[in-house]
Each structure stands twice: as C-alpha cells, then as structure tokens.
Amino acid sequence: MRLFVTAARFQLRHLAGSPAAVQVCVTAPLLTVVFLSISDYAGRTDLSPYAVVAPTLMSLWLLALHAAGELITEERDLGTLEGLIAAPARLGTVVMGRMCAVTAIGVVSFAESWLAAGLVFGRWLAFPHPLVVVACLLATVWAAAGTASILSPLFVLMPSARVIQNTLSYPFYLLGGVLVPVTFLPGWVQPVSRAVFLSWSADLLRDGLDPAPVTDAVARLAVILALGSAGCAIGLMLLRRVLNRVRRLGTLAQA
Description:
The protein has helices spanning 2-15, 19-41, 48-78, 81-86, 91-104, 107-121, 130-148, 152-157, 162-167, 170-175, 190-193, 197-208, 217-249. The chain is an all-alpha fold. Helix 3 (48-78) packs antiparallel against helix 6, helix 3 (48-78) crosses helix 12 (197-208) and helix 5 (91-104) packs across helix 7 (130-148).
C-alpha cells in the first residue's frame, strides 16, 4: 500500500499542467454546455443530470486511457523504463498507483460540469443522495484505472500503441451509455454493455442525482468495483507475462 500511495503522489506532482489534464478541464464544461443546449432546445430540462454525468465519465475514461499508454511511453522516451522494471518494487503496483492518480483528476470534471450547468443555464442540480454520488465516483476511478491497465502490456511490446488508445474512447462511451442509456441500445448490444463498467456508473450516478430512492445502490457499487478489479487482475497478469517475455528475449529496448 505504501508503494501504491507513493506512486500516486509522484504522479500527481508530475501531472500538474500536463496537456491531458488541461484538455479534460477545458472540454468537460464545454461538453456540458453543448448537451444542455440540445436538451434545452428539445424542452427536456429533465435531462440535465445526463449532461453533467456524461462529461464526467468521458473525462475519467479518457484520462485512464491516457495514463495506460503515456506512462510506459514516457518512461521509454526518458530511458528509465529498464531501470523501473529492474527495480525491486513491483511494476504493477507502481503502474496502478500512478494510473489511479491520473484518473482521479477526472473527478474535477464533475464539479466543472455541475458549475457549468448552474452558471450558464441556471440549473443548479441538487444532491439528494450525496453518499451514492461520492461512492460511485470513487468506485469509477478504480474501475477506469483497472480496466485501462489491460492496455499497459501493449505499450511495453510496442513503440507506440496510440492507435489502440484512441480507438477505445468513443466505442466505450456508446457501450457504456454515458449519455444515452443502455436501455435505448439494440437488444443484442445490451449484454455487452453490461460488461462495461461505465454502464453501471452512468446509471448509478444519474440515479444519485434523482430525488427518487436509489435501488440496490450497494450491489451496483459492488459490480463497478468487481469489474474494475477484474480488469486490474487481467492487466497485471498480462503485464507479468509480457515482462517475463522481454526479459527472456532481451528485447525491451527494441520493443
């Protein structure tokens, strides 16, 4: 745990002023304004929570994808990847600590989106279930980092896997129902969507902003955490196998 916290603190210091963090902080409120403009034009003010939840989850997943790729790429560019792998500290723990720190920055986008809805459109959303909202955001941070960690081994093997990184953003937004609920997707897609943590996070966050009672909140949080943990386990397993392979072949520097 100490190694995890140390890696997270290091990444937070390193992240200050990074282009990815700035991009998320700028685009989240703009997306909220766009979504609210559409709902306002359609006369659907009841969709305001959707316009706040969607940019938040998009930011979290975007940062998770960025972290999964850029952490390995930056270490390779700096010539420190070999030393990081040779160190006694477990690389998987370091990677997860740094990824969680990066993804946690995305929580700021929730505050920005909420403020944009209030300042621009006068829609100050209430928090009838604050504990549910906070717990869901924290669980989503873990799930996003855990799921994106599956990509980390690819960046050890490849000089650049940013094509994969870029192509996994919008498909996940659609499958996760961050703006349009999963129930509106074709029937054959819905089982696949339920395997994506974003679908559970989106539904629970929207319910947390709704005055109606939230049903099965604990169970739904458990599903989000379980999906994130499963992704983390798969990512760490793949990372160990990839590291064993490059050590055996001596191809890390040429990867």
